[in-house]
Amino acid sequence: MTVDFSAVYMGVELKNPVIVGASGITSNLETIRQVEDAGAGGMVIKSLFEEQIALEALALEHELTDDDERHAEMIALHPGIAHGGPEEHLMWVKKVVKGARIPIFASLNAGQKSVWVEWAEKLSQTGVQGLELNLYIMPVDSHLSGEDIEKKQFAMVEEVLRVVSIPVAVKISPYYTNPLHVVSTFDKIGVKGHVLFNSFFNPDIDPDKQMEVRDITMSHETDSRLPLRFMALLYGAVEGSLCANRGIFSGRDVVKMLLAGADCVQVVSTLYKNGINSLKTMIEDIEQWMDKNGYEILDEFKGKLSKKRAHDPYAWERAQYVDILMRHESPFLSRPEI
Question: How many Å apart are CA 270 and CA 276, to the nearest integer?
């Protein structure tokens, strides 16, 4: 049986539901070509970070004011000069889009509204087919409420939607009081894609050196349980596309997300751990599973085990958690008292 596992993400057609997420892999032409050859359905270019823009701007300001007399003519001739860093990123994205064989999405990771709006608009003009806004904001002010943070993010995204004409996705963390409400609100203001969830950088401490350690933590297979639950809870509840992220390492993991209600998935960690060519195996496994189970297209089983369509809709809620504890007692509970 011939299967068609093409997918649609934010109105953009993908040959399959596997998107390579923003990472170092998508910042290099050589690895980008490898990703395409391995069969990825789409790709998110490595993010443009607000910190990059700020640091480059500060560096330029220092250069132009370090010696006012020497730079007086330069300042007069180029009062609004833009530093090469962020602008080079825009040129890089244009270059990738021009030679790409699969849909390309840009990514912006920022916190200030002015940066969101200005650079979202610029990225949207590079030819990408969609824009991902990575809402990575670490709360460090104890006087700022969760509601305040959410209102700020809603307002920023609304501003972005006013200045871009391409579909916009938001990539959020799981640390909201009610992620369902957050996703629903973004959906209502016009967001076309919901990526659940991004990965927060968490510093570590080396007790021997007594210093902070900074490194990137890869996701693990068990990390997929959280986005799996929210795919199942959100399926049929929002109009925008649902994209699962974190802990997806195999074709079997992708199938799980689709059964829960995801339109597509993003993968990164598995490519670092198992190589870019592992994409081929992942995609082949999806195709083989569909053939084995008699499915010709994704829509025949997408959302089949979501809360909306599941035989036991409470499987995704707290009731199931209690049931599991009651049926599978911990071995420690059966040990004799000492």
Answer: 8
Q: pLDDT tens digits for 156-186?
A: 999 999 999 999 999 999 999 999 999 999 9
Structure tokens at 120: 């979202």
Angle subtended at Cα 329 by Cα 325 and Cα 334, rounded to the nearest 5 degrees: 155
- How far apart (Å, rounded) are the C-alpha atoms in residues 324 and 329? 8
Quote the pLDDT of residue 111: 74
Query: What pTM does this model have?
Result: 0.86
Domain boundaries, the chain: 7-304
Which regions in the chain score pLDDT beneath 50?
57-84, 337-338
User: Cα dist. 150→161, 173, 238 in Å?
Assistant: 16, 12, 18
CATH among 3.20.20.70, 3.40.50.150, 3.40.30.10, 3.40.50.170 for 7-304: 3.20.20.70
